[in-house]
Amino acid sequence: SKDTKPEIYLRKLLFAEGYRYRIADESVAGHPDIFLRKYNAAIFVHGCFWHRHPGCKYAYSPKSRVDFWEKKFATNLKRDEVVKLELSRHRNRQLIVWECTIKQMQKNPQVKEEVIECIKDFLTSDKTFQEI
Predict the structure, then answer these.
(1) pLDDT tens digits for range 15-53
(2) 96-114: per-residue pLDDT in tens?
């Protein structure tokens, strides 16, 4: 889905910092949550549960319908990999911001500033992929 609370939160912060972007740009592979054309950068706000953030407490596995959930998660991860490869093929830079990072930003102003600086560094660097 789009326009989730974590996405809106990050978009407002980026806009306040002077960044202009497109939302779910259909001309870019994977329809990134935020696309900064000036920096050729796609930003995805990934939910830890749905995208299986390694080592995260929010990436738990449900106890019921185990087969269904394993298949669902495997499909999501496969789609993420396809999108990553397609973006790389088109030389789009990619940044993944995890839901747990957004939650930490909302609770702690210092973490918020650190993450914003990390995003700024990514946009001005030559990195092609990063996760926060």
Answers:
(1) 999 999 999 888 898 899 999 999 999 999 999 999 999
(2) 999 999 999 999 999 999 9
Confidence at residue 53, expressed as pLDDT on a 0 to 100 scale: 93
Q: Which of 50, 59, 43, 61 is nearest to 116 (CA)?
A: 43
Sign of the CA dihedral with 23 first, then 26, 29, and 30 last: positive
CA–CA separation, 118 vs 30, rounded Å? Answer: 23
Label residue 121 exposed, middle or buried (CB < 10 Å: 0-12, 13-18, 19+): exposed
Q: What is the DSSP letter of 58?
A: T
The DSSP bridge pattern shows strands 34-36 and 41-46 to be antiparallel
Burial 48-85 (b: 16+ CB within 10 A, else e): bbbbbbeeeeebeeeeeeeeeeeeebeebeeebeebbe
Rounded Cα distance between 19 and 124, Å, is: 12
Mean pLDDT of the chain: 93
114 with 22: CB under 8 angstroms?
no
